[in-house]
Amino acid sequence: MLANWGYQDGSGSYFITIDTDKCNGCGKCVEPCPQRVFEVGEDPADPLREEPVAFVRESIRKKLRFSCSPCKKYLTAEGGSAASRTSPEVLAREMKNLPCVTACERGAITHSW
Amino acid sequence: MATNKEEKKELWRWLESRWTNPDIDWRKGKILTAGIDIGSVSTQCVVMVDGELYCYGNLRSGSSSGDSASRGANFALDGTGMTVKDWHYCIGTGYGRVNVPMAKRAITEIACHGRGANWMYGPQVRTILDMGGQDCKVIRIDEKGKLTNFAMNDKCAAGAGRGMEVFADFIGISINEVGDRSFDIDEEPKPVSSTCVIFAKSEAGGLLRDGWPVNKVLAAYCSAMAHRVLELMMRVGLEPEVGITGGIAKNRGVVDRLEKELGMKFSPKVWHNSEYQKRNIPFDTQIAGAVGAALFSKAAVEKGKG
Amino acid sequence: MISAGIDMGGKDVKVLLLKNGQILAREKASGGFDQTAVVNELLEMAIKNAGIKKEDIERIGVTGSGKKYAPSHEVEITEIGAAVKGASFLIPSARTVIDSGAEDSRGVKCEGGIVKDFATNDKCAAGAGAFTEAMARALEVSLEDFGKIALQSTKAQPINAQCAVFAESEVVSLINSKVAKEDIAKAVNDALAERVVAMVKRIGVEKDVVVIGGLAKNPGYIHGIKEGLKTDIIVPDYPEFVAALGAALAAREEK
């Protein structure tokens, strides 16, 4: 199952997706995150799943844009000229280098921005 | 159209409803289960007897979840002779799920909506769009109602029923009329550009002053809301058939526009259970979460947890 | 040379007259329904207070989200440019400028008055002054008092909602639960400050940090910013006029 945690508002769309078929609840994503975005426990979206799973903790879910920004230095000046916006290639490359993404050995975590 | 001051105050109030199945004698049932869905705006209680829909109630939530749960239960059980103590198992869901005193367990609304919609609509529904008072969810399920993909947005009022309530209140139109009025226009306007309800209100004020008829302003807002929902749906992906649950289903101002953008129609609000369809049981899209919770309750009893 | 700077803000229109680096007059008023009419009125008032004649104004610079409603002018400058110009003029050592208005907030990294990088919170009322406005209404206090009473609070009372509309409902239920007004006010200011601080951290914080815009007059908000950034900040006098000052400076530069 693809669990998309996050939100969208007037300024944009901010989601972290956890592939729960890949996630085994190992918890290696928890420590590397400076904001402690992840938690491991009973699957909030699948009450019948017995294995623990990683998810975005409730109290930070609606602030994801702000909590994740320290790691997302590749997001340069928004709203400026096209030259100052992050190119899709840089975006794709940098998103893979985020601490949580690299910490997961199963590649279960992806960011949408 | 509201004329006196008292009516005007309740413009945001959609219609509350309840229903009891006349064909079931609950005293002859073996497994009595219930699901209570406490949203921040509305509360539903669904009671099942041996997995059959027995009764339900749909009313506005109060300021305390526990209180809403009790009122919801009493409203659903009104006139049935059944009391909360007769239930073998009850599960709470929704925003206030941890505060349901009569529930043995709390399960998130995402899981409950998936299960509930699958039961109400049938296995052909693979994508569910649910918009309630304070959130919007897009859920993909398999034929058994198990989740395969989901996204929920409960951060922003513009993408939820509350935004529509605030806007309708600002314009001075009863929320029940929004849908039909939004189509009583000369031509479809562009959506309001503000992606925030608060800014949209200022924008709407400007449009009204520019001479826009009220219905056209409503249309512009419904259109904007439809686009917002579309964005969320695209993230999760759409697999037909697509069913709608929640209060939004009652606003054709948004639903019809969504269908147009998507180039597809949402599943007809027809019970999968042909008996229910034959008996004209009201298909209330807002009860899907509570239905799912009642079904999970039944599963719990059958697993020996009752 | 006398130049005029006009800031057509989301809520208030600001007009400033500048002569050889001296500010002659400042006027502001709520934009209301007819921003153009308001601007013209403010210009007249400013001209009168400055003791000059309309013809004496050689060039007019305009900034703000309502630029298109401005009367005829020579120069247009973005809010970001205006914020940096104005702030750097007053505080030449400014390296980080935080401009918080009614409808949006900006965090700008600059050096010597030149913009180097920026981040914005816009299109969402929760990231700007509109947030505190809605809450002040719910608490039934004026915007001025709202900031002041926040400083009297000693308790942390988190606001979970990240949306101005939802937060308003949350505040109403907090009031009904008899939570003290000062604690609610502090929570609201802290919540807004948190979002603005997070926005500023996207560009990095370098001293001197200058905070301008209408929201800078709210002491509760300023307290939240200071705590969030964990550094000293400078709030110039008349912070809501700094962007208009920047526009006036830009006007006199263009040849």
Tell me what the structure shows.
The complex is a heterotrimer of chains A (113), B (306) and C (255). Chain A has 113 residues and is α+β, with helices and mostly antiparallel strands. Chain A has three helices and five strands. In chain A, a hairpin with a 2-residue loop joins β1 and β2 (12-19). In chain B, the strands form two sheets. Chain B has a six-stranded mixed beta sheet. Chain C has two domains: 1-91 and 241-255, ATPase, nucleotide binding domain (Nucleotidyltransferase, domain 5, 2-Layer Sandwich); 92-235, ATPase, nucleotide binding domain (Nucleotidyltransferase, domain 5), CATH 3.30.420.40. In chain C, β2 (12-19) and β3 form a beta hairpin. Chains in contact: A-B, A-C, B-C. β1 of chain A pairs parallel with β9 (147-153) of chain B, so a sheet runs across the interface.
What are the key terms here?
B: 306 residues, alpha/beta, Nucleotidyltransferase, domain 5, 2 domains, six-stranded mixed β-sheet, four-stranded mixed β-sheet, 37% helix, 19% strand, disordered N terminus, C: alpha/beta, five-stranded mixed β-sheet, 41% helix
Average of per-residue pLDDT values of chain C:
92
Major β-sheet profile of chain C? 5 strands, mixed
What is the CATH class designation of the largest domain in chain C?
Alpha Beta
How many E-type strands of chain B? 10
Shape of chain C: globular
Order of helices and strands of chain C: EEEHEEHEEEHHHHEHEH
H and E string of chain B: HEEEEHEEHEEEHHHHEHHH
CATH superfamily of the largest domain in chain C: ATPase, nucleotide binding domain
Count the domains of chain C.
Answer: 2
What is the tally of beta strands of chain C? 10
For the terminal residues of chain B, how far apart are their CA atoms?
49 Å
Strand order of the largest sheet of chain B: 1-4-3-2-5-6
Trace the largest sheet of chain C across and list its strands. 3-2-1-4-5
Beta-strand content bin of chain C: 15-25%
The most extensive contact between chains is:
A-B, 18 and 27 residues
Identify the overall geometry of chain B: globular
Helix content of chain B: 25-40%
Which spans of chain C of ≥5 residues are poorly predicted at pLDDT below 50? none
Distance between the termini of chain C: 12 Å
Oligomeric state of the chains in view: heterotrimer
Give the helices and strands, then pairings.
The complex is a heterotrimer of chains A (113), B (306) and C (255).
Chain A: E1 2-9, E2 12-19, E3 38-41, E4 53-56, H1 64-68, H2 88-96, H3 99-103, E5 109-111
Antiparallel strand pairs in A: 1-2, 2-5, 3-4
Chain B: H1 5-9, E1 17-20, E2 32-38, E3 42-49, E4 52-60, H2 65-77, E5 89-93, E6 105-106, H3 109-121, E7 127-131, E8 136-141, E9 147-153, H4 161-171, H5 178-182, H6 197-209, H7 214-236, E10 242-245, H8 252-262, H9 274-278, H10 288-302
Parallel strand pairs in B: 2-5, 5-6, 7-10
Antiparallel strand pairs in B: 1-4, 2-3, 3-4, 7-8, 8-9
Helix pairs in contact in B: 3-10, 4-6, 4-7, 7-8
Chain C: E1 2-8, E2 12-19, E3 22-30, H1 35-50, E4 57-63, E5 75-76, H2 79-90, E6 96-100, E7 105-111, E8 114-121, H3 129-139, H4 143-150, H5 164-176, H6 181-201, E9 209-212, H7 219-229, E10 233-234, H8 242-253
Parallel strand pairs in C: 1-4, 4-5, 6-9, 9-10
Antiparallel strand pairs in C: 1-2, 2-3, 6-7, 7-8
